[in-house]
C-alpha cells in the first residue's frame, strides 16, 4: 500500500480494483484504478478520492506520508461515485478541510451525500495558492457530466485531467513507459469509445483551452499516467473528438440458423474487395463495449439481424440502443438480415441507423437461406455503392 511519487512532494495515493469486470455496462477485462493525488505544501491538498469500498487502501497510502487529519484542501473534479465515493470518510477525518468543486459539483455532492461540508465553489480560470504551488481550475462541463473540471499544477506541469485521457487498467505500474504502450492505447481508445465519445464537441473545446499548457504529466482519474507518450495520446484525442474515420467497415450481427451470418461474411468480403479494413463481430461472441471500440474509427457500420417474433434479436436491439446513446457522427450504415415469413427486423435496424444520424445504403434483406447466385448479385451491387 505504498504511495507512488510523481514529483517532489506529489504522490499517487489511489487504489487498484483488480477484480472489476463490468463498469456500468462497459466490460473491463483488465480491471481499473481509481486515481487520487496528494500534494504536500503549506496547504496539504488531496485531489479526488476513490470508490467507497477501497477507501482503506487510499487512507493507508496517505497515512504513509502524513496524518490524514492534516489535509487542508480536497479538490473534487467530478461527482460520480467512483471519484467521490470516499469523500464522506476522508471529510470525517480531515474535519477542517475545505472542499473545492464546481457549482454543479457542489449541487451534485450535496444530493449524493446529504452533507454540508465546507464547500468552496471554483470558477474556470481561478487559481488557488497552496504555498510554493498554485492550482488552476478549468471547468469542462459535459466531459462527461455537467460538474466536470480539470486541475492544473503549473509549477510541476501536471494536469489532473479527470475522466479525459483515462483507461481502465489495473496495474502496479503507474506510468505509460512502464507498461506496453499498445495495451495502454488500446484501453484509452476503448475508454473514449464507451464513455467520452458522445462529448466530442466538449473534448475539442477542452483541448483548445489546454493547448497552451506546458505538460510533463497528464494524470487521469483511471488507469496509467501519461509522461512519455503525451504527443501520442493528445494526437489520438484530437482525431477522436473530430470523429475522424478510416476506410474501415465493422459488420455486427446476431443469427439464428446462420443465414444472417452467411450474409455478414459476404458483406465483409465485399468491403475487403474494395480495400477496406474489416471487422466481423458476432454479438454472441463480442461484448458491445469491445464492438464500440472498433466502431469508433469505422466509416461503415453494418448491422444484421434475423426476425424473431416480428422484431429484432435481443442482442441486436441492445447494441443499437447502446450505439445510439454513444452517438458517433459522420458514419454510413447498412442494415441486413434474413427472415422466414414476416421480415420486419431489417427495416427496424435501418430505422435505428437513421435515428443515429447515419446516411444509409440500401438494405440487404434475404428470405430463408441465401443462395450463391443471389448473394453474388447482391454483393456486386453493394460494392458499386461503397466509396
Describe the structure.
- Helix 5 packs across helix 9 and helix 8 crosses helix 12.
- The mean pLDDT is 94.
- The protein has helices spanning 55-63, 81-84, 87-93, 103-113, 181-196, 200-210, 230-241, 259-273, 288-295, 314-326, 345-355, 372-385, and strands spanning 4-7, 10-12, 15-17, 22-23, 26-27, 32-34, 37-39, 45-47, 73-75, 98-101, 119-121, 127-129, 134-139, 149-153, 158-162, 217-220, 246-253, 277-282, 298-304, 332-339, 359-360, 364-367.
- It is built from twelve helices and 22 strands.
- A seven-stranded mixed sheet has the order 1-2-7-8-9-10-11.
Pick out its properties.
single chain; 387 residues; alpha/beta; Metallo-beta-lactamase, Chain A; Rossmann fold; 2 domains; 7-stranded mixed β-sheet; 6-stranded parallel β-sheet; 34% helix
How many domain modules?
2
Compute the average pLDDT.
94
What's the helix count?
Answer: 12
Shape: elongated
- Distance N terminus to C terminus? 54 Å
- Provide the gyration radius in Å: 24 Å
Return the CATH topology of the largest domain. Answer: Metallo-beta-lactamase, Chain A
Q: Which strands sit side by side, in order, in the main sheet? A: 1-2-7-8-9-10-11
Strand content: 15-25%
**Unreliable stretches covering 5 or more consecutive residues:** none
Oligomerization state of this entry?
single chain
SSE class: alpha/beta
Name of the top-level CATH class of the largest domain = Alpha Beta
User: Which CATH architecture of the largest domain is right?
Assistant: 4-Layer Sandwich
Helix content: 25-40%
Largest sheet: 7 strands, mixed
Instruction: Please give the number of β-strands.
Output: 22
